[in-house]
Amino acid sequence: MLPCWIARREFLERLRDGRLYWAGGLVAVLLLTALAVGWAHQRAAQAEQRAAQAMDYHDWLRQDRRHPHDAAHQGMHAFKPEAALSMIDPGINPFIGSTVWLQAHRQSEVKFNAAQDATGLQRFGNLSVGWILQVLGPLLVIVLGFNAFAGEREQGILRQTLSLGVSPLRLLGGKALALAGSLAALLVPAALIAAVAVAAGAEEGECLDALLRLGAWSLGYAVYLGIFVFVVLGVSALSSTSRMAITLLLALWIAQAVMAPRVLSELSRAWFPSPTRLEFNQALGAELKTVSDGVWQKNFGSTERWGRDVPLSKWGIALRLDDQASYPVYDRHYGRLWDTWERQQAVQEWSGLLLPILAVRSFSMGMAGTDFAHHRSFTTAAELHRRHIQDLMSADLVAHADPLGGQHFAYQAEPDLWATVPPFDYQPPSAAWALTHQVRSFAVLCAGLLLAAAFAAFTASRQRAL
């Protein structure tokens, strides 16, 4: 008996008993609902971001004649653009903010995250396509396949099938093909609808990149659900009854969907602890003062800021030297902090060998452009723009205010100076960049698929002895 014949029989059986209609239909409705909600949210967020960025830059250009240092303190704001695939997986975006104030002398944190305004239900996660596939996808596989071997054993069908000379591995292949076909019948149409929505929601010139991301994203979830296809079949072959099979599978599902993410999150923070906000600010402030003291002592013979030892004719150059000396300090401290967070993430990704949800969650956010790597890319670009503004203002002070000596603060720049600062235009990384950063999580998923297939093959091969 060929695997395709076995798969056809299994698929028709699921249609007859109604499981595919009811369980699959419910998941399909949830997927389409989540996609519609995500699409509407993304469109609104994109419109708000574009309008806010344009208004902020307009306010910068409309400044009257003023001292450039005052303009630098007013600064600008950088608004994080909404990723094209955020409609299917918002990732960490609701928790890390969307706006950076590009102020003088200090690197700011991203602020105004949606979770601050959310209710207590936020802790259960956002209803998104990614969340549904990560949490409810395995449950759907369990409902469809828990009795694939155990049910036939109880009814005596399994012994009859094997007595006809059908090899256990061929039987496993047919059942796996049937489960995969059942999932494809539900998810492929949803994926096509998602592709249309993503293409429609992508910014100009980003459509192809967004579709490439969606293709890789879909492949990752295919591997993820494939892991559970083999795990479900393996446990069903190992269990003596259907009741035992579904009990074991539901216990595994609860452990990996509810308990494991929280436990591994705490473990990763214990292995790679990150400083508290107070500790980080104290360490940053201490090094900034040390470096600044060295710069002032070297160039002006004093560590007293803006004292009588530094004439007004040198305040512009003092500002420039002080700021440029602080750039490496910010890079070191924020770099160490971000590296620690990425090591914590790596621990969770490697744990995906036993708990696939951790690996697919990372891969999903990465390909959707809503993970920490993309956030770090945006934050770095915003900080470089801040430094560019600061350097331009300082250069104008050195050229025009310092020569005035005691009249340094009487200098007011013409509005033409503000136009020399370009608008903040962040270009998100490409799909290839995202895939490069997610090689580890995808490799873990593939390794998990091989392990699950080996487990299913081992348990299925023992059926002759039962």
Overall description:
The protein is mainly α and about 475 residues long. It has one domain (about 5-465). It is built from 17 helices and two strands. It has helices at about 5-15, 20-60, 70-75, 95, 130-145, 150-155, 155-165, 170-200, 205-240, 240-270, 275-300, 315-350, 355-370, 370-400, 415-420, 430-435, 440-460, and strands at about 75-80, 100. Strands 1-2 form a two-stranded antiparallel ribbon.
Instruction: Calculate the terminal CA-CA distance, rounded to whole Å.
Output: 20 Å
Shape: elongated
Strand order of the largest sheet: 1-2
Radius of gyration over all CA atoms, rounded? 29 Å
Percentage of residues in helical conformation: over 70%
- Helix tally equals 17
Question: How would you summarize this macromolecular structure in one to three sentences?
Answer:
The chain is mainly α and 466 residues long. It has helices at 3-17, 19-61, 68-74, 93-96, 129-145, 150-155, 157-163, 168-201, 207-238, 242-271, 277-300, 315-350, 356-368, 372-401, 416-419, 431-437, 439-461; strands at 76-79, 99-102. It has a two-stranded antiparallel ribbon with strand order 1-2.
